[in-house]
Amino acid sequence: MAKVSSTxxxxxxxxxxxxxxxxxxxxxxxxxxxxSTTLAQLEAHLTARATAAGFHLExxxxxxxxxxxxxxxxxxxxxxxxxxxxAGAWTHTSVALRDAFAGAAxxxxxxxxxxxxxxxxxxxxxxxxxxxxGIIVGLGVRGYDLALDFLMAEHA
Length: 156
What we know:
Layout: E1 3-6, E2 14-19, H1 31-34, H2 39-52, E3 56-61, H3 65-74, E4 80-86, H4 95-104, E5 108-112, E6 134-137, H5 142-154
Parallel strand pairs: 2-3, 2-4, 4-5, 5-6
Antiparallel strand pairs: 1-3
Helix pairs in contact: 3-4
């Protein structure tokens, strides 16, 4: 089941934070690679920052690709102005995810907690990078703060 959380509906411009498969395990799965911050803690932190700056941040994590694709498609009409995504393993496998972003014409930043280029060879390729507004890799959960700062500045 997808997990969705968001700020108050009357907040300002809409931003979207998407997490792909296995990121629901953040904070407990391989903490030596991904750190000890849980997904709930990360979302609460980013949501508070967005709200304080006058933005509405919706957070969605799903292990089911179609749920994420449907949410990206919905941005075509719901007023979402930008997205941060950590697609997890879908980064390296999903043409459908790439096509959803292209079809929605949604500006997005690709974020990875680890440096995927210093890991296994199959993680070096991203189907998203070529159409992403920017890419942040290897900075831990701090990468999300940088991505949020960028989107908020771009849509201030």
